[in-house]
Prior knowledge:
81% helix; elongated; disordered C terminus
Amino acid sequence: MGCAIAYLVSHADLMPVQVLTGAMGVAVAAIGGLLSLYRFQEKWVGYRVTAENLRREKFFFLTGTAPYDTDDKFQTLVTRVEAILAAENVQRTESTAAKKKAGGAGAASLPAQESSESASSS
Length: 122
């Protein structure tokens, strides 16, 4: 329906309406391109998965359900949370490496980040 309205408006004899229609089309295309380029939805889904996994571990810990029904439940919590965070970091690193290899957005800033990380670990 939106396409039909845009078609009808674009064929009207009103110049300001045609300019507005064209500008709206350019804005929609630009926003769609940016969303595709930076993959905000994919990243958000990944972060939500990590957050929900951490939340689940929190409630297991607080209720004392398995595997937190032993005497060393805090150590178990730490181990499991670190595993969840490590998996998320590996996924983010792989995504960043793939983007850098493909020459995607933000690839130019990666060497500076890597050099600062290596300097801080020394």
